[in-house]
Oxidoreductase (Pararhizobium polonicum), 1544 residues
Amino acid sequence: MSGKFNSRRIRLGMVGGGQGAFIGNVHRIAARLDDRYELVAGALSSDPARAAASAQELGIAEDRSYASFNAMATAEAARDDGIEVVAIVTPNHLHFAPSKAFLEAGIHVICDKPVTATMQEARELATVIENTGKLFILTHNYTGYPMIRQMREMVAGGAIGKLRHVQAEYAQDWLTEAVEATGAKGAEWRTDPARSGAGGAIGDIGTHAFNAAAFVTGETPERLLADLTSFVPGRKLDDSANILLRYASGAKGILWASQIAVGNENALSLRIYGDKGGLEWHHHSCDQLLFTPYGEPTRLITRNGAGAGAAANRVSRVPSGHPEGYLEGFATIYREAADTIIATREGKKPAEGVTYPGIREGLAGLAFIDAAVESSRTSSWVKLDI
Amino acid sequence: MSGKFNSRRIRLGMVGGGQGAFIGNVHRIAARLDDRYELVAGALSSDPARAAASAQELGIAEDRSYASFNAMATAEAARDDGIEVVAIVTPNHLHFAPSKAFLEAGIHVICDKPVTATMQEARELATVIENTGKLFILTHNYTGYPMIRQMREMVAGGAIGKLRHVQAEYAQDWLTEAVEATGAKGAEWRTDPARSGAGGAIGDIGTHAFNAAAFVTGETPERLLADLTSFVPGRKLDDSANILLRYASGAKGILWASQIAVGNENALSLRIYGDKGGLEWHHHSCDQLLFTPYGEPTRLITRNGAGAGAAANRVSRVPSGHPEGYLEGFATIYREAADTIIATREGKKPAEGVTYPGIREGLAGLAFIDAAVESSRTSSWVKLDI
Amino acid sequence: MSGKFNSRRIRLGMVGGGQGAFIGNVHRIAARLDDRYELVAGALSSDPARAAASAQELGIAEDRSYASFNAMATAEAARDDGIEVVAIVTPNHLHFAPSKAFLEAGIHVICDKPVTATMQEARELATVIENTGKLFILTHNYTGYPMIRQMREMVAGGAIGKLRHVQAEYAQDWLTEAVEATGAKGAEWRTDPARSGAGGAIGDIGTHAFNAAAFVTGETPERLLADLTSFVPGRKLDDSANILLRYASGAKGILWASQIAVGNENALSLRIYGDKGGLEWHHHSCDQLLFTPYGEPTRLITRNGAGAGAAANRVSRVPSGHPEGYLEGFATIYREAADTIIATREGKKPAEGVTYPGIREGLAGLAFIDAAVESSRTSSWVKLDI
Amino acid sequence: MSGKFNSRRIRLGMVGGGQGAFIGNVHRIAARLDDRYELVAGALSSDPARAAASAQELGIAEDRSYASFNAMATAEAARDDGIEVVAIVTPNHLHFAPSKAFLEAGIHVICDKPVTATMQEARELATVIENTGKLFILTHNYTGYPMIRQMREMVAGGAIGKLRHVQAEYAQDWLTEAVEATGAKGAEWRTDPARSGAGGAIGDIGTHAFNAAAFVTGETPERLLADLTSFVPGRKLDDSANILLRYASGAKGILWASQIAVGNENALSLRIYGDKGGLEWHHHSCDQLLFTPYGEPTRLITRNGAGAGAAANRVSRVPSGHPEGYLEGFATIYREAADTIIATREGKKPAEGVTYPGIREGLAGLAFIDAAVESSRTSSWVKLDI
């Protein structure tokens, strides 16, 4: 073990996530849940007063609450007890610069999705990651759900045979009206191209469905055809995205992402069909998975229950029938990161099964957004440029 | 009341539907359920022996069991007690000729969907219908389900506001393997372009989803973009269809029809979203409808239960909580036809609310198939030519 | 085949079921659905004008519309083309006398449940049935549901091992308020001891749950302990019944019947547990059955789908995924009766699998009601006197 | 603020919960989730080596890892930086002595349920609590679930009117076979009267259903009639409990607790009916609540969604549609305890809405077990002696 990082918990810093920020708090809960991290430094807000107040509330020492991420990267890298990893939880357009700064300061990065606001930034970041050799974890949190792991394991193990059709959805309704005009939390920057990038619904939630489908099937679409719409007058980014997918393997798919589908609350769902079986999963009952071997009755596989395999059981915390959910899934990403960080310290490989989304998934997500925007503009099939 | 047709029940004939035929029996149950028809004549099979045996089994008098639909049309039209309406339940390519023959003989027609095998036939049939003034009922049976009627009434009444997005699906799995090669009931002709027409899954079940969506929303898509696939090697028609929809009103949609989606059993579903609300319906729980007024809790509307309106109640037979299903929905089409036939006899309009699919829906269905095939071939948006 | 009854359809008469009667119409639809009966005679109402009008509406010849069931039994028995079976669809207190009259006239009886209003009548009827040798079919309609048949077959076949616990429920909410005071259809006589007998909810719906549980498990409780309540002020019969069950085999159970459980619509459900497996069925999704072999994932068995056995398939009409429901289940009782009537004519046994509820089930139902009333009065375990 | 307890986090100790213990880890996650506690001391195991190893793993200083709870209570009470609250997570028969010791040492107690193994202990503990004035929190964790809070708020607010019927269930299947004979985790002591007390299923899970029903309705049953069974040969405690409930208000209820109901995984459910409405909640979809105002469509109320009220929103962490579950609910009990501890320090009342189960709920739970055992023995209604 390196002398510098020998404490029981991994020392963690945070950029963004000051008072009132939703996702920053989620990252902190995720980091705490399995007791693998200690939050010791932060550049929590661009507003110095809010940054300081937030730091105090979180028990961060005064001298480790920084006014800028650059100052933080420099100072923490120089400390004997400096942070080993930083969580970047700022809006999309502020992912690239801090990620680059910390990686170059020798500090691992856990970054909220999407990886960056543009493909160009993402490619540059990929180079930084490669050059620095530091870890980069992208919190595509749904890949931390046990039954998503279960699906992946089953597909890889041949349970559904050769992939034929993917039905991926992520539906919400919180942008049904022009809430960005009335100051709704999170709506303003998410509907602003300058801060969100080229994608609205497709970037915010479509990428989650895209990532989850790729994670589960082990295949990334080669081409897509998209029809993006901004239903709410005056909205600059899409709030609904209808997309056809084609895979190199011959599989096909449909991806639907909508933020105006009234009655849906983070309704991520995956239905995956092969020539030997089908799988169906819905976020609202995330501990349950329906599996149909062709010609047999559908089976209900539950987290930690009969039929659940090693990949899902690895990331389960409580017995079957006791619901786990969003925070547990998010925490699993943090736990996988922790396992990898520890292994990396020691020059080892992480244990069998440890997995997390990284720069490759980030690049794929941006390629997906760019292809969708281009396809919708040209009404033609567009190749994903990953 | 016309002297000829004064019996308590409407005299009904049938073309096709001999022993072993599935859909012919469904039509007969549907006709019997509400006691509005009496089956008195038939050309039940092209095989004379089977035709005769089938007729006897059904209680059709020997002299009214015909060797051909032409002979039947001529003879029945000449009888004082001849049939008033005929049900055509033959495979797709044999819908046009008998429909034309009976209409021209002055006999109303109830025809299984699709209306004909080709658009050209359908247009010609439309002319025949117009010229003869006889009724033509197309058994798009899902429009007979009470909660489908409920959705239509709610959308028309403004419950969801202006239509934005339509999510229509019809998924099955019975063509997952090459069952047409092993003599599976119904699989052979359905996968044969000569007998089914240009559409496979898209024609057999896609048209049902298309028709149901149009019935419910009151809008027919203006353009579509389709990606049709035959996953099973050697299959000549599509067994899975991924389709994007655009409406003249600005609404969008996705239609997915698949016969290789393992674990799905006639999984028709409709999810309809407007700027004020959303509706969700699934075939497997066909007596239940989910309605979400924007910003309010989702409400469960049940057939004949609280929240159900006049349009659904008109076509319900038993109290809420006692499931109705496929046969009842099918029977409703027959009941609507009966009401219209009686009204027509008397030169009256059918009662408020009576509705059934006809030639217009048939034309739309064929336009949908043709546009999908063309779009899939050219990878471009294609206008529906209705 | 007997000379008298050689027509294609079985000649059926009806007692009760005049205009406006709900259950009479259900019986007629059930009789028609599979085309095995022809309704040719009736004593449809005690009001002669209503009886005549109802008969005309149903196509019953004027001379076969009777003013009383006694006149009908006598006259029909004397006709060469007289009825072979009669359906009794009057309120509970009017089941005994007509059943007896027709049986003694040599005519089979299909009777709505409960068999009679009192145990004494039921015992007398049992003797009549034995002495006359005629058939007596009691329309405990839920035994006609395919998945109820499936459960019975599975339990009998050892799928759940030795029975341990039965959880049977039938919940409604239509008697939540004193609707009998405001003329609600069916509420008045159902809450009147003189016409319903000793049981309210327990008789009207509790017996259905009791019968269905016995049909499925093949076991009838030996003792019960009941707590009956009339929640609505002034109501004379129970509107909610909480009952513990003990079986001779050592199995236990709970039966809950309520007509004041707001939000429930004919919510019959059965959950059956043995030492090797469990089964779960709910009326609202009557085509689906959950089966859990101990230690394995729960399996979803669907009507006519993979996993469904011979007993369920025998009584299914349409493919899996096309919902069947209440009318189909009711019609199955009529079909089983028809098969048995035909076999009886010919001195044969009905085909393998044909089954219907009869006097034994009727006696058990009344014993259940009487025991529950007695137990609730004495707060003690009471033996069922069947 | 007291000088002693002025750190950002509340100093927490733990008794029991050493390596391999399930519930100890749940308590620690719950304590960490909202960052309100710091675990600084423990008597984690009666095995000194395991106690030490567990402490080291958890970051507890060597001098604060104790060999006995008595030593811990004494030493911690004497330290300036001693613990303010202790979590007792030992088996049932080891709840009383440590609870008493810490309370008398001036340290608040969070205790796993049931409060003690016997009613006599519980009464003595109640006196200790009263005399010491320290807080006693009993982790009946389901009361921390947002939709359970929602139900309670709705019932208290009159949403269902006057209570009539309670249907409470907790079903599992993990004791279907004699797993206690084969060393299954947790099975051995749970089926041993010496360590569990008089109740098997009724104590382990029946009390959860009992507690949740009481929490939600605001009423505790006055009498019960129980039929307890040990289905597995040789098992000394009940593994299935069928219970009728009577409330002083006139309401009735059924409580079913079973550990041999194959296919059930911690299937806690509550269905509550009043004269104006009904509520239905199931553990497997714990973020959803069905509410039916009499005569209106059922409404789906979701955590943090439309229709959710202040009581549920107070204890929600993430937006609607992102599942929360067991750990979050458990953590809420810890958060409520933390809020109360802080308020108590300052001599204030906790904020509006803060609530947690305590000694009163513990006494009720034991009274429930004792009454059930007595009733089952005597086959008679027994009054709960709370």
In short: Chain D touches chain B through 13 residues (CB under 8 Å). Residues 190 and 196 of chain D are 5 Å apart (CA to CA).
